[in-house]
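U., I forgot to send this yesterday:
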Amino acid sequence: MIIEKKIFSEFLFSGLDYDDYIKKNKIAELVGVNLAEYGDTQKKIVPPPFFSVDPKFLDDPLSPELDDLSRLHWLVRSRKVTTILEFGLGKSTIIFNDAILKNKISYNNYIVKNLRRSNPFECHSVDNYEKWIDEIRKKNKLDAVIYHKSKVVMGTFSDRVCTYYDPLPNISPDFIYLDGPSIYAPEGDIRGISTHHKDSLPMAADILSIEHFLLPGTLIVIDGRTANARFLKSNLQRCWTYCHDENFDQHYFELTEIPLGIYNRLQIKFCLGETYFSRLNCT
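Result:
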């Protein structure tokens, strides 16, 4: 069941002052951006129409967008995230590493002693493109990041054509970021259908396959990829709060259910606070 709440993103980012947050957390420095030259920290960078769908651009990274990266950092910090699952490496990986290491400094003692979290303060980043993995690993010292090189295959979910990373890390994330794979990553086809076409769309189903393992309180963030977000929205089966913020071009899904037990309840109370229980969709 999906409960759509247009104001959910306002709740998620209540209190976020971009300029102040970027300076305090050195977001621009982390991703190699000259803040003086960048200009408006909330400006949107619009790439050419075929930038993300033409294979000749696969080696060209997107320019960092400080507002997007600030929101990701803010979410990991404000929600006291312990374990990140990231699909698609990039500047976000650097940001996640910084945010979750700061969480470790702030919350390690409580979380290790009181919560059932077996991969605390880790960011598991999955990508099929070995060049990207090697480049990020060599250029950055990201102590919290565990890299996963996985192939991408065409598959089906309830007979609907989609893609899957194989393998996936065997973890229980409380934050998932979907920004991969590219449409040219999957191997094979399903009855002649694949995403290897400039007019095709990303259609990852990995989250659907692990939905019933996720803990209440888990947050999914999708960067763009609106068709993929709608695919997830149409097929997720549990109780989710959903919002598409068109200004940010991001989608947010929060698994807003009654806690599974004592340790999940403790985690929610500590990481998300009592306001979570006022958002419960299923009682």
